[in-house]
Amino acid sequence: MNNTQEKDISPGMVGLLATATGLIVASLYYAQTLVGPISASTGLSPQAAGLIVTLTQIGYCLGLLFIVPLGDLLENRRLVFTGLIFTSAMLVLAAVSSSAWMFLTAALGIGLGSVAAQIIVPFAAHLSKEATRGVTVGKVVSGLLLGIMLSRPAASLIADASNWHVVFGGAAVMVLVVAFVLRAKLPVRMPNHHISYPKLMGSLWHLFLQTPVLRRRAAYHAGLFGSFSLFWTVTPLMLSGPQFHLSQTGIAIFALVGMAGAVASPIAGKLADKGHTLMATAAALALGVIGFALPMIVPGSRNVALAILVIASIVLDMGVAANLVLGQRAIFTLGAEVRSRLNGVYFALFFAGGAVGSALGGWMFATHGWHAALLTGMAFNGAALLYWVTEYLGHTSDQRKPAV
């Protein structure tokens, strides 16, 4: 057994990896609240403005499928460093973009390079003891989720105070600093096996077919992340509408409050370490349903309605944060030699759910209104919860079987 597995990961290293993943993944989301000013500045037509977000997500999905699996083949520290240097360069290109094609190229590249965060998470699991792996992953994922939740309001506030170019320029500097800090602090980790890249990629489909836990956990989180993407696509539109009349700064503050849900990540990790993954998953999925049920209450007071919506955002974010950790904890027990590939497939699948949720939510809100969008989000989580029931029934059936 090598030295990194004999001793547990230090609290300082956990904090560094949590901060790093948060800063890296934030790069994916800065543009979401800045689509308007970016489109106006680069000459992108309103019909094509959605490409700003879509190309970033496409780049990320491509990276999850074709780059993250390299964590099982190449030295991990060097892979992370290279990915972050590339991401920083793409953020610089975004910051200096004066035309649509320049920014869209940068958006694709930002998504592609930001998958370095998903090489770091399995790295954290590798550095942890089995008994504390869930807590470690939970803390690192908390940082990742805080990066997602903070990125949008931070981008809005910075752009209001200066302009959108400053947002991407500042992000480029932060990612560059993270790259060099991680190169200095991370241990060398060389995977044990050596296979060709084509065989590595071919193994992804085999892993998907042969790993029921991966398929189930991806399905659960595709439902939750689909509803999460739907919520954060339509809720800013609702908040800026005639019922609430919130400014961009007000919407940014709303998003900041919602990030309180990230506290569920380490709690979920502890529950998983104690063997309570099955019931903790049910609780996470139920929180997702509740998060969409609460805003269906329509009180007469604007302030009460806004307060309920704030609570709903926290509840939903708690469900998403908890379930993400439970899923990663489950797939990381399947073997260190395939951890990066499993993580890449897992994220790619549930990000696909997020893309569907965002697109469907926007369409439902535009054509059928707020309540129809809420019911759609509830359906995503409800379907995942129904699928969980099949796992629960299978588990109880196995317990009732007589020992042979």
What does this protein structure show overall?
- Residues 13-399 form the Major facilitator superfamily (MFS) profile domain.
- The chain crosses the membrane at residues 12-32, 44-67, 79-96, 102-125, 137-158, 164-182, 218-239, 251-271, 278-298, 304-326, 346-366, 372-390.
- Keywords: Membrane, Transmembrane, Transmembrane helix.
- This is MFS transporter.
- Pfam families: MFS_1.
- This protein has 404 residues and is mostly helical.
- It has two domains: 12-194, Growth Hormone, Chain: A; 204-395, MFS general substrate transporter like domains (Growth Hormone, Chain: A, Up-down Bundle).
- Helix content is 77%, strand content 0%.
- It has 17 helices and no strands.
- The protein has helices spanning 3-6, 11-26, 35-42, 51-66, 76-95, 100-113, 117-127, 133-161, 164-185, 197-210, 212-239, 248-258, 264-273, 277-293, 302-331, 339-368, 370-400.
- It is globular.
- It starts with a helix and ends with a helix.
- Mean pLDDT is 87; it is low at 1-5.
Short description:
This protein is mainly alpha-helical.
Give the secondary structure arrangement, pairings included.
Layout: H1 3-6, H2 11-26, H3 35-42, H4 51-66, H5 76-95, H6 100-113, H7 117-127, H8 133-161, H9 164-185, H10 197-210, H11 212-239, H12 248-258, H13 264-273, H14 277-293, H15 302-331, H16 339-368, H17 370-400
GO molecular function: transmembrane transporter activity
Organism: Duganella callida
Keywords: Membrane, Transmembrane, Transmembrane helix
